[in-house]
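In the lab's daily routine, each protein ends up as an entry in a very long ledger. A line of letters takes care of the sequence, but it says nothing directly about the fold. The fold becomes a row of whole numbers, each drawn from a learned catalogue of backbone shapes. The protein below has been through that process, and both of its lines are reproduced in full:
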Amino acid sequence: MLSAPESISGPIKGLATAVALKRVGIGSLVLERSPELRTTGAALGLMPNAWLALQALGVAHKLTSIYSPIQKGYFTNVANGATQQVSFMRINGTSNGPVIVHRKALLETLAGELAPGTIRFSSKLTSIRIVAIDDEVSSSIAIISLQDGTIIKAKVLIGCDGVHSVVARWLGLTAPVNSGRSAIRGLAVFPQGHGYKQTSYRFLDEGKRAGFAPLNDKELYWFLVYNSTDEETVGDPKLLQNDVMKNLAKDFPPSYLEVVQHADLATMTWAQLKFRYPWDLIFGHLCKGNITVAGDAMHPMTPDLGQGGCSALEDAVVLGRHLAKSSLPNPNGHGLIVVLDAAKAIEGYVKERRWRAAGLITGAYLSGWVQQGGSGFFMKFLRDTIFYGFLFRRVVNLQYDCGKLPIVSSLSKSDAQTKID
């Protein structure tokens, strides 16, 4: 049973976790519900903390050779036209601004690090149970049932299965709640070039926040976040595009409307923004024995700090570190690691991530609320003096370093067997 794989479910979060485990010598199996790698969607902004995680995963250089960081940004108040410029450049000439990357590129980069067969497609999780076993180096295993009747026994189960996580529900975590806002995202394509350099543009209005930034010289990533109702649903992307231009953003500057007009409809998505209450993370059960969650399954948050994907990459590295600490080389060879105390490793991971994730959820929600709350004196004071001047740095650290993955020690077979015994 020691050779049973660590089982992971989910796209970016699952792939990143599998890469982290591979780098510390632990075998894993990624269960993906879709029949193939889900590369649809637009892009995401990766902040400095995400790049530190990608460096630990050993893949950062594959993306930095393609994408460049944003160097400055313009923030425009739609109501009065006032614009403020913000520089992301450090004293040494480097940028600490976000890097906008294609979602597809990040997925394929992570997937390319994994051995064939690591990802099992069309695998829908239906039930989970823990079975105690009589073993000196393991106290239980997770029994996972799939929709096709397959039964998988795993030393560790990591639920990276998104906002509506089956694993989170099994752990007893409360369901995410609606933030009262929705987001529209997409790519805009300019075959002859859009002319924008490494600069982001943001537009703030009461109840609305929008922006765009370049991925390369022909593509821009754009978004719109707006107050919405629980009953609202949106389907056809062409109707969605028309709604943005003729209703939601009709008073926005022509530059933004031109970007939306050039939208690649195949990349457009709409979603209600949900989050988990931070106290559910602080006081809730984020693990049970050798089962835990990561990414949106643990800490769904609004996108107002751009930390959804970034924090999931942090999760992967931290989880890999803790599992590696509780592991030894496999005495039977095969070049893999034996996890000696999975439950203890999972508890260490949860302890390290609980408060960090709760702080990001809080910071993201407050950031969106104060930005979209209007331009009156009270909201301006709350935004500039209270939130950004006092609270922001105390609950959010966009330079956060999640650490390095340890180098796997090379104990001899006899030494490893002695320690296991």
